[in-house]
Design goal:
heterodimer, A: 232 residues, alpha/beta, Rossmann fold, ten-stranded mixed beta sheet, two-stranded antiparallel sheet, 6 helices, 12 strands, B: 358 residues, alpha+beta, Alpha-Beta Plaits, 2 domains, four-stranded antiparallel beta sheet, 11 helices, 30% helix, 23% strand, globular
């Protein structure tokens, strides 16, 4: 096994190109589908994410910040947070991620039938997120560069108002508004055999209010099967 | 924009009262599907096939054209009109004029087209009075002035003329796959109707409305959806299509031997040319037997930007694309000393960055 340790490292110039569920009878489905599903205040998280977040779920209205050097696993963490809700039937959107790895997303556990991609919103990324609110329940957005405090504030307010969850994927300290939940990648290490085997991602997790205690967790992302699991 | 082979069969482009053109077109789409898994029907009479990557890596482009032409003749008895260019709009124009636009020449090709190509006679007439007859002249107009003078449809067409968008609104028949499915007696789902239990639920309606809003803001390619298709390497398996365009819901759960795993969270739609060198600075190659000519030491993005390689695995050769047999590909995984892991593809003595394990 060989491993590589890295701290946060930004290489935007390098990548300046920038880069089953069984069928059920219809009548049974109608009875099983919870009427209030779309309005439930919590969106489910799967393992290992549920162990990281106070309350083991995402709350509607939250803005979540995932901080990571480019190429060090931030995108996988942001997408991983969506898997529970995606599998529970919620729609998700991925905005500003130029080249989404669709196979990796499916391996992670996202249901591609309910994912909208807005890969290159150019200058209109905040407007695109605004357009999606009310239609999708979770939105991952990678703003192209620094975001002004007023834009960020407006967006966060709208997300809260519309009861969605916004997951902002940023490089260090480029999101100007305090987040309800923040996950920062502090270290990544690849385990290898004759192929890439697994990546151990160390996350510093903090919230607001009662949940403001900072905790460190290690998540394996991806593991051999392309999924996420607890690494502690 | 993706380089596309356009297949235009004029004789099949009009609906025949007895439904014969639909049946012939459905048979053609199926037959072409045996040649390439990436055939995309666009409208009655028109299909496109992605010819991915810079054309110099597809020494087989001529072979593709021959095979497709022969298939059209065999299946329909009609003579097709074939062309290659970047993006759907230009690929259709190229096909209708039987032109293979060389790689990198699509812009010049597009600019030389008459304004009528945009399918707006009113616009053509107005512009003709101003002495504007070619797409290039129209493209050079200030977008703000175009938007001020014309409706949003023209503003969209203007972006197509400028090469900012790959296809005209309405160029695709959004109900085409349904129609074909009826003809073939198959069941396909429309992308926007991907209901969780095969029905369109309230949540899907809301998502659909939201997608429409984004589409209006950013154009038909602004919102895309994804499906998986069979294949061994991640960049072949992912299919991203504009939202609202039909997509097959064929699932891809068959295990493929030698599949490159794990899949990178970021898969580059347009691979980036890189160089892989050994400790002495000598460029590395993959031999015909799939062996690396040395130990990778540095990954060069440009003359100035390079990263040291901490670890590598592969190459894994792949030969599954039917027209690429003469140009086998191989994949290599790298971990850089700076912590990132990337997926490279080697083809025709060149290296391409195809994925980032972000």
């Amino acid at each position: 096994m060989a491993g590589v340790t890295a701290t946060r490292y930004s290489y935007e110039h390098m990548f300046a190109f920038s880069p089953s569920r069984p069928d059920l009878p219809a009548d049974l489905v109608a009875r099983l589908r919870p009427v209030s599903l779309s309005h439930a205040r919590r969106l489910p998280l799967e393992e290992p994410w549920s162990a990281l977040v106070p309350g083991a779920a995402l709350r509607r209205g939250w803005s979540v910040v995932v901080q990571s050097g480019s190429g060090l696993g931030g995108l996988s963490v942001a997408l991983g947070l969506l898997t529970g809700a995606s599998r529970a039937g919620n729609w998700v959107a991925v905005v500003g991620v130029d080249d989404p790895g669709v196979v990796a997303m499916a391996d992670l556990g996202l249901d591609l039938r309910r994912v909208l991609f807005v890969p290159r919103p150019r200058g209109a990324w905040a407007e695109a997120v605004g357009d999606l609110l009310g239609g999708v329940d979770l939105i991952v957005v990678r703003p192209p560069g620094r975001c002004s405090p007023s834009t960020a504030r407006r967006l966060v307010d709208r997300v809260r108002e519309r009861g969605a969850v916004l997951v902002v994927l940023t490089e260090e300290r480029s999101w100007p508004v305090p987040a309800d939940l923040s996950l920062a990648i502090t270290q990544t290490r690849w385990a290898t055999t004759s192929r890439l085997e697994a990546r151990y991602v160390t996350l510093r997790v903090s919230g607001r209010g009662r949940a403001s205690r900072v905790a460190e967790h290690v998540v394996v992302l991806p593991n051999r099967a392309g999924r996420a699991e607890a690494g502690d | 924009m993706e380089r596309l082979l356009g297949v235009w069969v004029a004789a099949l482009s009009e609906e025949a009262p007895d439904g014969s053109s639909w049946r012939a077109f459905a048979a053609l789409v199926e037959a072409l599907g045996a040649l390439s898994p990436f055939v995309e029907p666009v409208r009655l009479g028109l299909c496109v096939i992605p010819v991915r990557g810079p054309s110099r890596f597809f020494g087989g482009e001529d072979a593709v054209l021959d095979a497709v032409a022969q298939t059209v003749r065999d299946v329909t008895g009609c003579e097709p009109s074939l062309g290659v260019a970047d993006g759907l709009f230009c690929a259709e124009l190229a096909a209708r004029s039987s032109r293979v636009v060389p790689a990198g020449r699509t812009e010049a090709f597009r600019r030389a087209q008459p304004l009528d190509a945009l399918g707006r006679p009113d616009l053509s007439a107005t512009c003709a009075r101003l002495g504007i007859r070619r797409l290039g002249e129209f493209a050079d107009l200030d977008p703000a002035r175009v938007l001020g003078r014309f409706d949003a449809g023209v503003a969209h067409a203007h972006r197509v003329a400028r090469g900012e968008l790959a296809e005209l609104d309405g160029q695709r028949d959004l109900r085409l796959l349904e129609h074909l499915a009826r003809v073939r007696g198959q069941v396909l789902e429309r992308a926007e109707q991907g209901g969780f239990f095969g029905e369109s639920a309230a949540g899907d309606e809301r998502a659909s409305t939201a997608a429409h809003r984004v589409r209006r803001r950013l154009g038909p390619e602004g919102v895309v959806v994804a499906t998986l298709r069979p294949g061994r390497v991640p960049e072949d398996r992912a299919a991203l299509v504009p939202w609202g365009a039909p997509r097959s819901m064929a699932s891809d759960d068959a295990p493929w031997p030698g599949r490159v795993a794990p899949a990178p969270a970021s898969t580059l739609a347009r691979p980036v040319a890189v160089e892989l060198r050994d400790a002495n600075g000598a460029p590395l190659r993959v031999s015909a037997r799939g062996i690396l000519s040395g130990e990778p030491a540095t990954l060069w993005f440009s003359h100035r930007i390079r990263r040291d390689v901490a670890w590598h695995a592969g190459p894994w050769p792949s030969l599954e694309r039917w027209w690429a047999h003469a140009r086998p590909r191989a994949h290599v995984q790298l971990v850089l000393t700076s912590g990132e892991a990337v997926l490279l593809m080697a083809q025709s003595q060149r290296w391409w960055l195809v994925g980032i394990y972000d």
